[in-house]
Amino acid sequence: MSETNALKHRPIRSYILRQGRMTQAQQRAFDELWPHYGCQAPDGLFDFDKLFGNQRPVILEIGFGNGDALAQNADREPENNFLGVEVHGPGVGSLMLKLAEQESHNARILRGDAMQLLRQHIPAGSLTGVLLFFPDPWPKRRHHKRRIVQPEFAELVHRALRPGGYLHMATDWQKYAEHMMSVLSSTAGFANAAGPGNFSPRPENRTLTRFEQRGQRLGHGVWDLIFTRCV
Length: 231
Ligand SMILES: C[S@@+](CC[C@H](N)C(=O)[O-])C[C@H]1O[C@@H](n2cnc3c(N)ncnc32)[C@H](O)[C@@H]1O
Known about the structure:
Strand order of the largest sheet: 3-2-1-4-5-7-6
Organism: endosymbiont of Riftia pachyptila (vent Ph05)
CATH topology: Rossmann fold
Bound molecules: S-adenosylmethionine
Shape: globular
Pfam families: Methyltransf_4 (PF02390)
Radius of gyration: 17 Å
CATH superfamily: Vaccinia Virus protein VP39
Order of helices and strands: HHHHEHEHEHEHEHEHE
Largest sheet: 7 strands, mixed
Enzyme class: transferase
CATH architecture: 3-Layer(aba) Sandwich
Family: Belongs to the class I-like SAM-binding methyltransferase superfamily. TrmB family.
Helix content: 25-40%
Oligomer: single chain
């Protein structure tokens, strides 16, 4: 992607990571990358063949943060397409810079709310995988309702996955891991890849994200959950 080579400005990346607001030059860089990687939600459902220009499997990553995992997956798996959804603008900028640096053509980014995306814009049975790594844990009991993993989330992901497709979640909050296990285990049509009630071993190829590194420094454990759509 030669036209984006000029945008390989590491200072921009660190600025975007630190700040929510960008200078005019940084905004221009952001704008120049957006046509390559950004996408808008359509009025109705996404046409993934049109969005990616091919019929390869689509994997959705929800809340990709600064995009470490998505960028690495896109680079490592050119046979798949990756759609990332994130509300945080600086994270979107950071991921676009990574994708441009590694000249990935198989990733698109939607800046917005994952729940709205799942409810309104993902065709049923269209996804091969859904990734949710270290979602905000909302540890206080009165905030638990803000957690993204709820019965409606599980049902929407089930509808979005093709039969055999998978949901891979990871968290470093034990209570949230137990909540995820409870929600997914009681959603019809999912099978736990590790057997009922079991957490999965950490897949070797799961990228160590910034949030996981932070958890490791704090001595947190990590729980992986992988469920497949069986019906
Ligand atoms: C704790 S961070 C984890 C980021 C990344 N997955 C990682 O492991 O480094 C959670 C991320 O989810 C994003 N997020 C939270 N709710 C979201 C939603 N409804 N739709 C899209 N992104 C969301 C936040 O902006 C934040 O970047």
